[in-house]
Design brief:
With about 775 residues, the protein is of the alpha/beta class. The protein has an eight-stranded mixed β-sheet with strand order 3-2-1-4-5-6-7-8. Strands 15-16-17-18-19-21-23 form a seven-stranded mixed β-sheet, with helices on both faces. Strands 9-10-11 form a three-stranded antiparallel β-sheet.
Length: about 775
């Protein structure tokens, strides 16, 4: 069975966002909701709820659509007039209010209109499958299951799947395959238990973190900062509660109270402080309300982040706790950190001792597979490590001994003190309750660099990059510096890799398992040279980067980049020099050097201009490509998705897009192998450029922007240098420039800018704050 057309019933935040993500997969989707009470007699307004939801999605931040045109795939309607639309749907997702009878009344209607092979699923996070199916016909039970998305559906990779004993296996397989390959989801099989996996553990963790922080007298900033030391996103406990919405917490807690047996440890943390209920009643519901544990307040014309004082209920300017001492302790390992007498560390132990014990005690109730639980918490709550991976990092024996010393119960899973994961013969295995280890099998088409790295040592390695054997004659180059920034070590390893691959492999893939491909050049390396006016060293770094990117482009074998997340500045320049790119759908690429007072200097101007000069749909003549390239670089445009990266020409039309990040390396490897057959390196490109005339024209545009207040003084100066490079300097259109000529122009402009006080100010501001300075 194939899924070609879908529907979502319920146009609330989750339902509408699920519909948006279905459209991101290129799938037509119907979005239906009820008829508003005040529109019963007005034909034009009967679809208002669904239509308003789509309009809201188009303005959402972060964007719900990977491209605004995807909204055209959504057909809006209402349940009273348009249920007949669903007759040709292959998958219908129910996302209405969490009320059992409301859902069951809808199911009866769906059963009557949907085709016999249409899968119907619920996005419920609180109601168990057996209650949803109670008294439903057997034919309905055979095509029904729970598919629980996490918010926001575009960005959260977890999909919890609960099927019943009568659910048709072919429908389960079809929706799992579709969610995996087209929606980019990690599908985790859950037992039919309250809260499934993610919310059962995640809400327990949030409640423990909230109550312990209040009991110990920590501030919200201290509590959230302490959590980041364990691989928790910077939102921490309280920032995440604000994101979820404080008004939803009582509803979730009440559903858990009703659904869980009396002896479940969840009840120990299932309470809401009176002051928090008052916050909710007064409209302080988090980001969507007047504020939450944090809020943004305007003071003297500036937006100031404030934090809540538990005792007074007042807000104060949020501080940034100093974690230097704890980070130093952490270097000795997590046991040292959890044993530290500092209050934040004690808080962390109180929260993690409860949460990890609770998670271990839920095996096998919620799942018999600890790896599935870890996946759920990584992909549903953005933890860097799941609870069992975290236990192994702490040490199971140490954790159990500390529980015993504090007279706390030890879950059966941890009683043997055995590691929860082990690696044998390069294969990762997970333990079960009997103490036996079972290999973790990847789905067909999934290849992770982490698995490759378990097979043996790197072929080449230094502190910033490594080369690995990805099998079948393909090598994989990995960046692994902080934020995968590019430095001299990276460039040296790339050049060594080109030599190695040329003699021993058929193709090269550039990829890493991290969150980002590369945040660009390591700017911190420039500062000492700038302060010391060591311009020769700066030029050497520039030449090194240019020659390395040139070597990638003209290597005697295909080079395929497989990026995900950020590919900025120098990271984007790497992409532009590859034969092909297989990108993860979440690619945020851009030539953003103007933000630090520079221009692309490793061939980025040269290659990006070539993209626009050879774009088939652009107006003919020498000026349109210059304008497009100039506009994109001078405005530091960054794609919000891989689809948009194609529109901006950071990706070529032939480049591929992979929705599921776990499949990215395998897809890139397949592309590299396909290119390796009868491969020949590209021919050097010649640049017909108009020279000074075009530079003057672009300069006039810059000055107009400046007069309108859309460009700062220094923006103008940088843009003039960029215009000089892109127009070809003193070129004559009848005498095309070579690639080396273009690289020389890049160096000339870069070296002029790097000597300016305005560039130094921008560099220092970026390194200090992480934000661009508009000087």
């Amino acid at each position: 069975m194939n899924i070609n057309k879908t529907a979502v019933i319920g146009a609330g935040v989750m339902g509408a966002s699920i519909a948006a993500h279905l459209s991101n997969a290129g799938i037509p989707v119907y979005l239906l909701d009820i008829v508003p009470d005040d529109a019963k007699t007005s034909t034009a307004a009967r679809n208002r709820i669904a239509e308003a939801a789509v309009q809201k999605l188009l303005k959402a931040e972060p964007p719900a659509f990977m491209h605004k045109n995807n909204a055209r795939l959504i057909t809006t309607g209402n349940i009273e007039d348009h249920l007949h639309y669903l007759a040709d749907a292959d998958w219908v997702i129910e996302a209405v209010v969490e009320h059992l009878q409301t859902k069951k009344a809808l199911y009866a209607k769906l059963d009557a209109v949907c085709g016999k092979d249409c899968l119907i699923s619920s996005n419920t996070s609180t109601l168990p499958l057996h209650l949803l199916l109670q008294d439903m016909p057997d034919a309905f039970k055979q095509r029904f299951m729970i598919t629980h998305f996490f918010n926001p559906p575009r960005y959260m990779r977890l999909l919890e799947r609960v099927s019943g004993p009568q659910t048709r296996p072919d429908l389960v397989a079809a929706v799992s395959r579709f969610a995996d390959t087209l929606l980019g989801k990690d599908c985790v099989i859950c037992n039919d238990t309250p809260g499934f996996i993610g919310n059962r553990i995640g809400i327990y963790w949030l409640q423990s973190g909230l109550l312990e922080a209040v009991a110990l007298g920590l501030t919200v900033e201290q509590a959230d900062a302490a959590m980041t030391l364990f691989g928790i996103p910077k939102t921490g406990i309280f920032g995440l509660l604000d994101l979820i919405g404080l008004d939803l917490v009582p509803l979730i807690l009440d559903s858990m109270k009703q659904a869980l047996p009396p002896d479940d440890a969840f009840h120990e943390v299932n309470r809401l402080p009176g002051w928090m209920q008052k916050m909710i009643d007064d409209g302080y519901t988090g980001r969507k309300g007047k504020g939450g544990f944090y809020r943004l307040n305007e003071i003297d014309g500036k937006r100031v982040k404030e934090a809540l004082d538990f005792d007074t209920g007042a807000y104060y300017p949020a501080g940034k706790p100093n974690l230097d001492a704890l980070r130093e302790t952490q270097k000795a390992g997590l046991p040292a950190l959890l044993s530290c007498p500092e209050l934040s560390a004690f808080y962390a132990w109180r929260v993690w001792s409860k949460t990890l014990s609770y998670a271990a005690g839920l095996i096998p109730e919620i799942s018999g597979d600890i790896a599935a639980v870890d996946t759920a918490m990584r992909e549903g709550f953005n933890w860097q490590s799941g609870p069992f991976e975290l236990l192994d990092r702490i040490g199971v024996e140490w954790f159990a001994d500390k529980l015993r010393a504090e007279h706390l119960p030890i879950p059966p899973l941890l009683a043997s003190h055995k590691a929860l994961y082990k690696i044998a013969a390069g294969e990762l295995s997970a333990v079960d309750l009997t103490g036996r280890y079972h290999p973790i099998h990847r789905a067909e088409g999934v290849l992770l660099l982490a698995d490759i790295k378990r097979q043996g040592p790197a072929i080449l390695s230094n502190p910033s990059a490594s080369l690995w054997d990805a099998g079948d004659g393909v090598a994989c180059l990995e960046f692994h510096s902080k934020m995968n920034t590019l430095d001299s070590d990276t460039m040296a390893l790339i050049r060594l890799s080109i030599s190695k691959v040329g003699s021993e492999f058929s193709a090269l893939v550039i990829h890493n398992d991290g969150e980002n491909f590369s945040a660009g050049a390591n700017l911190a390396l420039l500062l000492p040279a700038i302060h010391g006016k060591d311009w020769a060293s700066v030029e050497q770094l520039l030449i090194q980067g240019q020659q390395t990117c040139k070597a990638l482009k003209f290597a005697p074998f295909p080079v395929v980049a497989a990026p995900s997340g950020l590919a900025l500045g120098g990271g984007c320049e790497i992409l532009l020099h590859c034969d092909a790119v297989q990108a993860h759908a979440e690619l945020y690429a851009g030539l953003v050097e103007v933000g630090v007072g520079l221009i692309p200097g490793w061939g980025g101007c040269k290659e990006f201009l070539r993209r626009w000069q050879t774009a088939p749909k652009l107006a003919k003549g020498p000026i349109p490509p210059l304008v497009k390239a100039f506009e994109t670089i001078s405005l530091a445009k960054v794609s919000t998705s891989a689809i948009e990266a194609k529109e901006l020409l950071f990706l070529a039309e032939a480049d591929g897009i992979t929705m599921n990040k776990s499949r990215l390396l395998a897809d890139a490897k397949a592309k590299a192998l396909a290119l390796s057959k009868n491969y020949s390196a590209p021919m050097p490109y010649s640049y017909p450029l108009p020279g000074k005339t075009a530079g003057i024209m672009l300069g006039m545009g810059i000055k107009a922007f400046h007069l309108l207040g859309k460009a700062s003084d220094y923006d103008t100066e940088i843009a003039e240098k960029l215009a000089f490079v892109l127009s070809g300097g003193n070129a004559d259109i009848s005498n095309p420039l070579t690639e080396d000529d273009m690289l020389a122009l890049e160096r000339e402009a870069f070296l002029q800018l790097v000597k300016q006080a305005g560039t130094l100010a921008r560099l220092e501001h970026m390194l200090k704050t992480g934000k661009a300075l508009r000087n």
